[in-house]
Amino acid sequence: MKPLIPLFLTLLCPLLATADESRPGAGDAFLHHYDSDRDGKVSLAEFQAPAEKQFMLMDTDGDGSITAEEAAAFVQRMRDEMMKEREQE
């Protein structure tokens, strides 16, 4: 499970950056992102779903594992998308 820790941190960083206890709604932002069935709670499955989606995006050959090449290609795609968004601003 250790290899998923950086992945989870990547997924959580935007939420952690806005999770300020002095700011009302920080918990609500977390729930909005993860609580897919809108029951007011986040299950383990709901918490893992974004990582599963990202895994599927990275596993471009669909073999159930991510190679260094697939990971590098994914990172490059994300960089390219971020650069494109910055150019449009």
Compile the SSE list and pairings.
Layout lengths: L3 H15 L7 H9 L9 H15 L9 H21 L1
Can you give me a brief rundown of this structure?
The chain is mainly alpha-helical and 89 residues long. 67% of the residues lie in helices and 0% in strands. It is flat and about 40 Å long.
Structure characterization notes:
With 89 residues, the protein is an all-alpha fold. The chain is built from 4 helices and no strands. 2% of the residues are buried.
Secondary-structure element pattern, one letter each: HHHH
The rough form would be described as: flat
Q: Number of helical segments?
A: 4
Tally of DSSP β-strands: 0
Radius of gyration: 15 Å
What gap, in angstroms, lies between the N and C termini? 38 Å
Helix content: 55-70%
Q: Flag low-confidence runs.
A: none
Biggest sheet, open or closed, and with what strands and sense?
none
- Overall pLDDT confidence: 83
What portion of residues belong to β-strands?
A: under 5%
Decide which structural class fits the backbone: mainly alpha
List keywords for this structure.
89 residues, mainly alpha, 4 helices, 67% helix, flat
